[in-house]
Recover the amino acids of this structure.
């Protein structure tokens, strides 16, 4: 009897089952291999993402003491120079400093290993970078090659790093604090201002917050950082200076400096003539006229009715700070002003401090020398006292005019506004003491 050709018998059925199981096993093995390939690719990408986060955090930390805006830009630039998953690693600047953002500026405490987001320019010492391949990141999630077989088309992950910068904040040599007005910083006419490679900070957000006017000006500086913008008038020759609009606002670094409290009035009540004077409260102020040349002993001199010089007068005041409680500074003398600030204490390095409720403009219009240095100091031979700087001039709510024809040497200037006109050489000798920071940076997390 003939049997059907479709009949396979027990042995044929076994071969069919084996093929089915082989197909299943093969599918599973291919799946495992695919998962292994995708997992390896994802792991490799995370390592590259970590490299991007590390380099971006270090680059940002190098500039965190200088400018938070620049720190964010540097972090972005170094991150995008790295590739992860076939794409440049892109970061959002996170100007609001959201703790969950890509670039976060803050304070790192090495003792507790804690990072606290902060935009305090006097304290922020670290940059945290979150480099991501997520659905919400600029490059999106990482596509998988074989994951679609199992319904998984992509994967998401992030890597982060924290870098710390040694040192402290960078202080500008001249700071114009006014945050809205035009002409907050102005060099005009035949004005001469020399900061070497130092910096001017202009907080005004006005599109003409800084003015450079006239072909006769001499302005020597490394850079001018401006929140707003600047205007050039009359073809000033300042191509050698970096003019940087759109920079960060900088808080007054002396905002917490306490105002001295007057005690009992001194006798005499005003500083005049050629006598020697001691620190204290002088309700009559300082008033010098022709041939007058007082000597002031070290300390704080609290003045009502201002600081006035006229005629060929001179002043010697070493280790002294003048607190202009009321009245104005009106320096018009033709003689020399030999001034140095306190070398220690609360008012270290401050030469003039005008009260915060005193809005009177200050005019430094002298034709003689305005400088520091003790010409007869035997402990410092070889010092050229003519170029030693007086201390910092601090007029937080007033405009300061530097219009004299005499040479001025001082360590720094902070005022509401700063105008420079006269052709006497106004030279910032040293700016602020302290470490700029950024020279030493390292990863902590």
């Amino acid at each position: 009897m003939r049997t059907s050709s479709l009949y396979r018998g027990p042995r044929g059925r076994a071969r069919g089952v084996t093929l089915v199981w082989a197909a299943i096993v093969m599918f599973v093995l291919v799946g495992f291999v695919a998962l292994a390939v995708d997992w390896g690719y994802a792991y490799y990408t995370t390592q590259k993402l970590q490299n991007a986060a590390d380099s971006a955090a270090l680059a940002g930390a190098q500039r965190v003491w200088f400018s938070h805006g620049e720190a964010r830009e540097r972090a972005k630039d170094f991150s995008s120079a790295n590739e992860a998953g076939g794409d440049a690693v892109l970061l959002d600047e996170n100007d609001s400093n959201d703790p969950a953002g890509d670039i976060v500026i803050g304070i790192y405490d090495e003792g507790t290993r804690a990072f606290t987001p902060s935009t305090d320019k006097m304290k922020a010492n670290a940059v945290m970078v979150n480099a991501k391949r997520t659905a919400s990141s600029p490059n999106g999630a990482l596509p998988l090659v074989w994951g679609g077989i199992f319904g998984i088309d992509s994967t998401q992950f992030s890597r982060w790093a924290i870098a710390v910068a040694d040192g402290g904040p960078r202080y500008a040599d001249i700071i114009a604090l006014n945050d809205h007005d035009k002409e907050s910083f102005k060099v005009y006419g035949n004005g001469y201002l020399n900061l070497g490679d130092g910096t001017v900070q202009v907080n005004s957000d006005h599109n003409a917050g800084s003015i450079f006017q006239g072909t006769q000006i001499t302005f020597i500086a490394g850079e001018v950082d401006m929140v707003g913008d600047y205007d050039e008038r009359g073809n000033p020759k300042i191509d050698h200076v970096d003019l940087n609009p759109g920079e960060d606002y900088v808080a007054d670094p002396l905002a917490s400096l306490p105002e001295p409290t007057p005690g009992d009035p001194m006798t005499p009540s005003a500083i005049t003539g050629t006598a020697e004077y001691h620190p204290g409260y002088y309700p009559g102020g300082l008033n010098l006229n022709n041939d007058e040349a007082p000597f002031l002993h070290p300390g704080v001199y609290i003045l009502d009715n201002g600081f006035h010089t006229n005629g060929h007068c001179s002043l010697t005041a070493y280790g002294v700070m003048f607190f202009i409680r009321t009245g104005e500074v009106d320096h018009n003398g033709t003689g020399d002003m030999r001034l140095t600030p306190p070398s220690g204490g609360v008012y270290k390095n401050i030469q003039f401090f005008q009260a915060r409720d005193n809005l009177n403009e200050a005019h430094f219009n002298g034709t003689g020398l305005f400088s520091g240095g003790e010409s007869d100091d035997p402990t410092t031979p070889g010092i050229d006292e003519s170029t030693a700087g007086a201390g910092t001039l601090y007029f937080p709510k007033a405009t300061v005019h530097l219009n004299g024809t005499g040479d001025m040497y001082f360590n720094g200037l902070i005022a509401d506004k700063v105008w420079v006109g006269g052709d006497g050489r106004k030279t910032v000798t040293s700016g602020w003491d302290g470490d700029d920071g950024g020279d030493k940076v390292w990863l902590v997390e």
Notes: The two ends are 84 Å apart (CA to CA). The mean pLDDT is 85. The first strand starts at residue 83 and ends at 84. The helical segments are 9-61, 68-80.
